[in-house]
Design a protein that fits this description.
The protein has 127 residues and is mostly beta strands. The protein is built from one helix and eight strands; from the N terminus they run ββββββββα. Strands 3-4-5-8-7-6 form a six-stranded antiparallel beta barrel. The chain is globular. The termini are close together.
Length: 127
């Protein structure tokens, strides 16, 4: 039986810790940026994602997130969210990324929710 790695708090959805996986990458950008940046993911849920970043994104900033598998670019998941908080990352855990960014997904369609569920089943819940 596989053990689920969750962070339990009073939230609508449980958050799952993610370890780096070469089978997918996550990129994100704020609505003010032209280019996407590769992100390191700390945890994810159906309601949002926690990333580590080189820059502190301001709360209430709109964020675009793309999750894709290098083996299957046709199955990229495009999501939108809003920055809820930014905090300095502890030096020990930051992997050269200086900030943690908490993003709440917003405006997710049924198709996006299904794709996110499949991503989590494949890459997160089976770790």
């Amino acid at each position: 039986m596989k053990q689920k790695h969750t962070i339990t708090e009073n939230r609508s959805y449980p958050r799952y810790t993610i370890t780096e996986n070469p089978n997918y990458t996550i990129h994100f950008r704020s609505s003010l940026d032209m280019d996407y940046s590769k992100a390191s993911t700390i945890n994810i849920s159906k309601g949002g994602i926690m990333l580590s970043s080189d820059v502190p994104h301001r709360p209430h900033t709109r964020i675009e997130i793309v999750i894709f598998s290098p083996n299957n670019n046709d199955q990229a998941i495009f999501l939108q969210g809003i920055v809820c908080w930014t905090d300095k990352a502890p030096a020990l855990y930051s992997e050269n990324k200086r900030y943690y960014v908490g993003i709440q997904f917003s405006g997710i369609s049924e198709l996006q929710e299904t794709a996110l569920d499949e991503f989590m089943k494949t890459y997160v819940l089976d770790q």
